[in-house]
Design a protein that fits this description.
44% of the residues lie in helices and 26% in strands. By secondary structure, the chain is an alpha/beta fold. The chain folds into two domains: 82 residues, Arc Repressor Mutant, subunit A (Orthogonal Bundle), CATH 1.10.10; 219 residues, D-Maltodextrin-Binding Protein, domain 2.
């Protein structure tokens, strides 16, 4: 009988094109993937992988087996989901992905609630960029993900995924405490023309959004520092190295040398959960979404209290 873990390893190489990429998707080492495929070769008596320059390629036999593996793995996943739904209990294992500020600002309280209410549910959390986790949840590698998009630059969501909006996250401009506009009640984006900017790395959602938004306001961004984590951006602002636009979710604590000023027009992003529609009947999915909704409500209430 063919081993499911070995089929999963072969299927991952088929989908991602290399042993290294397959290992990253499966959250294991490349040697573990290679070992699984070597065992599958002995099990089937067929050559499945051949050297191709510095990489590998799948043989015709491997391609045929990978196609069957995709159907087999989908059936196993459906059977597991049906069985969980039949039992009506929040049990099993859930793979969750979230971008950095959601992993810091929402997931801790949601996971604590899940552990308290559903001790038989095991949740693994992975911090990753939204574009990556969307691909992974669509392919079934993750069960549920928390993603973001900016209201003026919405993200395309693949078919077959369901979503639940968790909150609208407002962004403010972070200015050095001695900046002339630091004491303002509100700041227009156009008032920030000529400023030096601190941004996340090029190619990330937040960097591309910042450039798009500033140019729409006829402000040409001069980006002098790039850091992907908002706490790092705030530290750079506190040092007087520029200003940044920072959402409220997960940004505390704010350094003493930083002043946060609301922007006009308001800048905000949507935070929402995504999962495969055919997995919606799983009690674990429903329980996790509910916990995220409550964590999001607590976060918004905390912002209202501070405001």
């Amino acid at each position: 009988m063919l081993d499911l873990n070995r089929l999963k390893a072969l299927h991952a190489v088929h989908v991602y094109g290399s042993v290294g990429a397959a290992a990253e998707a499966l959250m294991v080492t490349p040697s573990a993937v290679s070992q699984q495929i070597a065992k599958l070769e002995r099990e089937t008596g067929a050559r499945l992988i051949e050297r191709n320059g510095r990489g590998v390629r799948l043989t015709d036999a491997a391609g045929l087996l990978a196609e069957h593996a995709e159907r087999i793995l989908a059936l196993v996943e459906t059977a597991e989901a049906d069985f969980e739904a039949l039992r009506g209990q929040v049990v099993g294992k859930l793979q969750v992905g979230a971008f950095a500020t959601a992993a810091r600002g929402l997931l801790p309280s949601a996971l604590v609630e899940l552990r308290r209410r559903h001790p038989d549910l095991s949740v693994q959390l992975y911090e990753r960029e939204p574009d990556r986790v969307i691909r992974e949840v669509a392919r079934g590698e993750l069960d549920l993900v928390v993603v973001q998009d900016w209201l003026n630059q919405p993200m395309q969501i693949p078919e077959g995924l369901s979503r639940k909006t968790l909150l609208t996250d407002i962004a403010d401009v972070a200015l050095p405490a001695d900046h002339p506009l630091a004491g303002s009640k509100e700041v227009q984006l156009s008032d920030l023309s000529g400023e030096k900017w601190i941004s996340s790395s090029p190619g990330t959602i937040c960097h591309d959004w910042l450039v798009f938004t500033l140019r729409n306001a006829e402000v040409e961004p001069e980006i002098t520092c790039m850091a992907d984590e908002y706490p790092t951006q705030l530290a750079l602002v506190a040092a007087g190295l520029g200003c940044a636009i920072v959402p409220r979710l997960g940004r505390d604590p704010v350094p003493a040398g930083v002043r946060l000023v609301p922007l006009l027009p308001r800048q905000s992003r949507r935070i929402y959960a995504l999962w495969r529609s055919d997995a919606a009947r799983r009690p674990a999915i429903r329980a996790t979404v509910d916990a995220l909704v409550r964590a999001s409500s607590d976060e918004e209430n905390a912002w209202a209290t501070v405001s």
